[in-house]
Design a protein that fits this description.
mainly beta, glutathione-dependent formaldehyde- activating enzyme (gfa), 5-stranded mixed beta sheet, 3-stranded antiparallel beta sheet, binds zinc ion
């Protein structure tokens, strides 16, 4: 039987559980994912909708639909953290990996939209790794 993972937003008002049973794990480097995460890429896990259960604060979430392309974000209206959302075909649920409190078993399978990736990601991966703020 697969483990149940806990997840939620940074402020802690929105909480969910999801089965550690993901069929895909993509890091998406497209421009829209970079904008909406304000970071180098989105980290999206895909699972069946019945594997997800909201345990607190679902009413505090809000859904944004990007016009002209199938692109969605659900976020906590208090702290702005990204949260799971159903795919537009309503078959899967997409879980931003950073919203999990624990590590999923699956590892990233692909870097998608690599042609749109940012150069500072390449440079950042080569920068020294330090503990804490380093000064
Ligand atoms: Zn929050
Ligand atoms: Zn993307």
């Amino acid at each position: 039987m697969n483990k149940i993972l806990n997840g939620g937003c940074l402020c802690g008002e929105v909480r969910f559980t999801v089965k550690d049973e993901f069929r895909l794990f993509h890091l998406c480097h497209c421009l829209q994912c970079r904008k909406i995460t304000s970071s180098a890429f989105a980290s999206n896990l895909f699972t069946a909708q019945e594997n997800l259960a909201w345990t607190a604060g679902e009413h505090l979430t809000r859904r944004f639909e990007y016009p002209g392309r199938e692109f969605t974000k659900v976020f906590c209206t208090l702290c702005g953290s990204g949260l799971p959302f159903p795919s537009t075909d309503n078959v899967s649920v997409i879980v931003p990996a950073g919203s999990l409190d624990e590590e999923p078993t699956i590892e990233p399978l692909r870097n998608i939209f690599w042609e749109e990736h940012t150069n500072w990601l390449d440079a950042g991966m080569k920068a020294p790794c330090v503990t804490g703020f380093d000064e």
